Amino acid sequence: MNADCTVLVASCDKYADLLGPFATLKRKYWPDCPFETVLVTEHVPAGGLTAFDRVIACGPGLNWASRLVKALAEITTPWVLMLCDDYYLEAPVDTANLLRRLEQARACDAVNLRLIPNPKRGVARPEEGLMEYPKNTAYCISTLSGFWNRTFLQDLARPVSSIWEFERYGSFALGGERRPILATKVREFPFVDAVHKGCWEPFGVRVCRANGIAVDFSKRGLPSFATRAKEGLKALVFALVPNTLIVRVQNALGLGARERGSR
Question: How many Cα neighbours within 13 Å face the side chain of 210?
Fold first, then answer.
């Protein structure tokens, strides 16, 4: 196993049904993963989830961030590649490229190197073929796949409870942090975010079916028309108004806090 980095997959009992497809797709599309893969959740899931080398079962009562902090305390590598349980691979992972990006993160003393250009508004760093996110801007902190300095991630997660708070509040809680937050200019970790707000995304279903994986609709269904309409309106607003202004207002008023509160 690579001694510099651990793949950390964050989950919980409520989303345990997503782990089987995650494991199947990881085995298929990343068979040469050089990192120990650790699952952090509430209870050890049933079934042979062979895509995970270790499970950190935190038991009931801890929220998403508390489980993350506990897992990071049990990991010794200086870097972690943090993923969520619904990040389903849809194409082969270029391991050599990921190792190169990990080395760049170290060389740049970055706190995070995101492997997907989302959001797209980064400042170009042509010497590294990367871009840099200005700090204290909307979603400069995100759970989207990327390499993290382990101690920085642990400190950032301590004051929050959910993914929603981690991304929305964490983006504006960086203080005098001078180390960069970097991102690739194209998607270099080939995944889809298969579930949103507890519902299957159609492209998540397509990835499963294209790989012969049965989708369990008894646990979660597709989003309703009302949810789709709301998301479309939200996307329009974000397209017209600066994202940082919107998120600062949302944070100040506590708007949208229930969207991903369970995660």
Answer: 12
How many CB atoms are located within 10 Å of the residue 22 CB? 26
Count how many domains the chain has.
1
Contact 89, 97 (CB under 8 A): no
Taking the C-alpha atoms of residue 60 and residue 224, their distance in angstroms, rounded to an integer, is 30
Q: Rg for the chain (alpha carbons), in Å? A: 18
Weakest mean pLDDT among 1-5, 11-15, 223-227? 223-227
Alpha carbon distances (Å) from 137 to 5, 8, 151, 173, 207: 27, 25, 22, 10, 32
One-letter amino acid at 147 equals F
Q: Is residue 139 part of a domain?
A: yes
Please count the other Cβ atoms lying within 10 Å of the Cβ belonging to residue 237.
11
Residues 6+ positions from 222 with CB-CB distance below 8 Å: 199, 200, 202, 205
Question: What is the distance between the terminal CA atoms of the chain, rounded to a whole angstrom?
Answer: 29
Residues of the domain holding 109? 5-253
pLDDT for 51:
79
Residues 130, 113 contacting (CB under 8 angstroms): yes
CATH of the domain at 51: 3.90.550
Q: What is the pTM of this model?
A: 0.88
